[in-house]
UniProtKB/TrEMBL annotation:
<dbReference type="GO" id="GO:0035556">
    <property type="term" value="P:intracellular signal transduction"/>
</dbReference>
<feature type="domain" description="Guanylate cyclase">
    <location>
        <begin position="110"/>
        <end position="217"/>
    </location>
</feature>
<dbReference type="GO" id="GO:0009190">
    <property type="term" value="P:cyclic nucleotide biosynthetic process"/>
</dbReference>
<dbReference type="GO" id="GO:0004016">
    <property type="term" value="F:adenylate cyclase activity"/>
</dbReference>
<dbReference type="InterPro" id="IPR001054">
    <property type="entry name" value="A/G_cyclase"/>
</dbReference>
<dbReference type="InterPro" id="IPR029787">
    <property type="entry name" value="Nucleotide_cyclase"/>
</dbReference>
<dbReference type="InterPro" id="IPR050697">
    <property type="entry name" value="Adenylyl/Guanylyl_Cyclase_3/4"/>
</dbReference>
<protein>
    <submittedName>
        <fullName>Class 3 adenylate cyclase</fullName>
    </submittedName>
</protein>
Amino acid sequence: MPKYLRIGVHQSNVSGYTSKAWCVRRTGSTIFLKWGAVEVEGAGKGRKVYWTRLPQEKTIRCRTAQRAQDYAKAAIAKRRNHRYEPLTGAIANRRRSASNGAEPKQALATILIVDIVGSTAKAAKLGDARWTKVMGHYYAAVRKELKSSRGKEVVTTGDGVLATFRAPAAGITCATAIQKAVRTLGLEIRVGLHAGEYTLSGGEMVGLAFHICTRVAAKARGGEVLVSSAVKELMKAQPAIGLKDHGMHRLKGVPERWRLYRVEG
């Protein structure tokens, strides 16, 4: 088992929504590095981590054990500064069944992205042990609300959660419920929702709809739930849910300007 194994926060872009893991292992004067994209399932002791594809590996020969030790310490400190958390246990290779062929799966749904505000500062203040415990409660609260709202968890990455809903109203209701639940843990979140077609390929969500949702979430401030105009259009038959005009916004990497709405109440 590697001496050091860490998983990073999510990386969100148009090609996927994944987490990245690093392994830094020293044997004498030699450093062994292994890194790549991973998928996280579960939380706390029940959490499992899988490589989404074959990881990259590199061997560095430092000539002396002291140089190798210094290199390992610096490598770990660097990743710790980039919001990496410690992992216990190894990362498994995902076994793909015959039904999981090369054909990607397409779907139309409301996409929800949740992100903790100021997680780096909170993690540094609490320390690894307490922060890991808080995150366990956080994911438990999120999953409870997802189940109540019939949401489907796609992946958890670092302190982020990506989920889908058949109906936009269910996604909004879930987002506000998650907000209230995690406040009891001393956490504040930002949430973004968008409705559109996405593709699941190799365990990752791809497509412009996903990309738009990540940008909508990025526009939200702490305690805000923002939705795109596509969600607003689908909510015309749901007057009970208040949506306040949040103005026109340019979403990085997305064509044209988008009108966003803030969930009220």
